[in-house]
Structure formats: C-alpha cells, structure tokens
Design goal:
Belongs to the diaminopimelate epimerase family. It is built from four helices and 19 strands. It is α+β, with helices and mostly antiparallel strands and about 270 residues long. It has two domains: about 120 residues, Diaminopimelate Epimerase, Chain A, domain 1, CATH 3.10.310.10; about 110 residues, Diaminopimelate Epimerase, Chain A, domain 1, CATH 3.10.310.10. The strands form two sheets. It has a 17-stranded mixed beta sheet that branches. Strands 9-10 form a two-stranded antiparallel sheet. About 45% of the residues are buried. The structure holds the ligand N[C@@H](CCC[C@H](N)C(=O)O)C(=O)O. The site of ligand LBFN2T5F has 19 residues, from strand 4, helix 2 and helix 4.
C-alpha cells in the first residue's frame, strides 16, 4: 500500500505526519513507528504523528517517539498539525483534548491544565514535586510537572555546562519514574526569559520540546522565579509560554512543513 506523508518540524523537533482522517491506514505498532523514524533506514524523525478521526474532538493525534513508544503529548507537533489542518481545531490526544489555532506561520495551542500530584507525574512514591528530595550527579532538588506527558525539571546556573547526553538517559530510565520521564535542564535568564535543553523520553536530545517548555515555565512560575508569561529559548529557537488565571497553559511558536513524499507501507514493517 502506498502511503503519503508530510515531513514537518517545530524549531527543529521533526516529525513524519501520516493522515488517516479520511481513509484508514494499516494499524500502527511500535516496530513500524520505530522503522519509519529511523534516520538511516527509514524516513527519519524525532516523533511519528498519526492523525485519525475522533468521537470527542475534530480529530485525534497519536504520537510515537523515535523509539516507537506511543506517548500522550507533543507540543511542537501540536503546532505542526495546526499548520497542516489550516484552521482552529480541538484535537484529542491520550494526554487530553487540546485546542490549536494557526498563527503567523506557526500556531498557538491551549495545552490544558498542568498536574503536580506525585501519582499524576507519575513518580514511584509519594513526595513533594515542587522540590523533590532526589538528585543525580550534582543535579539536585528538581521539580516535576505533567502537561499531558511527564517532565522533571532542574534549574542550573548554565544549562550548556550540563552533559545532558550522558545524564539524560540515566534519569529518563531511573526506577523513580515508572513511565520514564522527559529531562529538562533550565537556566533562569531573567523574570521573562528561560534557557532550556531537553533530553526527551524515547527520542534523546532534540532541538526543541514544546511540552518541556510548558512544564519548565510552569514549574519556574510555581517557584516564583518568573512572571506568568515567559520566552523559553531552546537550541532550535524561542517559544512563548503563558499560564493563565484559569490554570491553562498556552504555547505559541513557529511550525514548518519541510516536504511531502510517499512510501510503500511494507518497506518499513
Ligand atoms: N517533542 C515533544 C515531546 C514528545 C514526547 C516526549 N518525548 C514524551 O515521551 O513524552 C514536544 O514538543 O513536546
């Protein structure tokens, strides 16, 4: 079966988008997603995005990490999908329903409400997620936020000085995090500006992580370190994040279509 795809990215966090809204595709599984995402033998991407019909929203977005694991949320892909859809839409994800709206060549996304309870992150046992009594090789007292998917956040004086490629996989797979975790290393520049690098669960170092920017901004706001609207600078560029009085997180930033193509489904199965 010949299948069309769209290659897209948000600040260099790249996606293969398959659209099964009008006509169904063969069932997606972990091995097929991993094969499509492979950068040497597949098309190559950080996340595979599968659009399907939805009973509760305008359409459904399923998200598969580079390693094939299916996950709940992806901020940068939400903006890419808004661009592809071309108008405002409510999108069902397994992390909740989000609202997307194309804006200035990118999109604005209502990412929903953050969760802070230890069992909503989740972590393995009860603890305060604002200042967790844990540490890894000099990285101490992180916070944790679930913004549809799980994030742990460390504030450091210089995010570039942390060997995230080495410590990221160790923290991602620590037994403290039963569903693994996205690892955010952030520096507060001033009350309107955060610098951030992310080791993504199931994808490794990416140029940007939208949910990581949301989780880090909300955590910094909870700690009183920044205002309720901030710019988060990632290696791939800037995102604007706001946490409103109604407890909803808003993310605004660019999205880009790179190219379109097609492939034979069996080639990757
Ligand atoms: N790149 C994404 C996040 C993708 C999912 C994440 N790796 C997870 O496993 O939760 C973003 O822009 O948010």
């Amino acid at each position: 079966m010949r299948v069309d795809f769209t290659k897209m990215h948000g600040l260099g966090n790249d996606f293969v988008v398959l659209d099964a809204r009008a006509a169904p595709l063969p069932a997606m599984d972990e091995a097929t997603a991993r094969a499509i995402a492979d950068r040497r033998t597949g098309i190559g991407c950080d996340q595979l995005i599968l659009l399907e019909p939805s009973d509760t929203a305008d359409f459904r977005m399923r998200i598969f990490n580079h390693d094939g694991s299916e996950v709940e949320a992806c901020g940068n892909a939400s903006r890419a999908v808004a661009l592809l859809h071309g108008s405002a839409a409510r999108v069902e994800t397994s992390g909740g329903v989000i609202a997307v709206e194309p804006r200035n060549g990118g999109a604005s996304v209502d990412m929903g409400e953050p969760r802070f309870d230890w069992d909503a992150i989740p972590v393995a046992y009860a603890m305060d997620t604002l200042r967790m009594p844990v540490g890894w090789e000099g990285l101490e007292a992180p916070g944790a936020v679930n913004v549809g998917n799980p994030h742990v956040i460390f504030f450091v004086p210089d995010t570039d000085a942390i060997p995230l490629g080495e410590i990221g996989p160790e923290i991602e797979s620590d037994p403290l995090f039963p569903e693994r975790i996205n690892v955010n290393i952030a520096t507060i520049v001033d009350r309107q500006h955060i610098r951030l690098r992310v080791w993504e669960r199931g994808a490794g170092l990416t140029r940007a992580c939208g949910t990581g920017a949301c989780a880090t901004a909300v955590h910094a706001m909870r700690r009183g370190l920044v205002e309720r609207e901030v710019t988060v600078t990632l290696p791939g560029g800037d995102l604007e994040i706001a946490w409103d009085e109604g407890n909803r997180i808003h993310m605004t930033g660019p999205a880009t279509e790179s190219f379109r193509g097609s492939f034979e489904w069996g080639d990757f199965a």
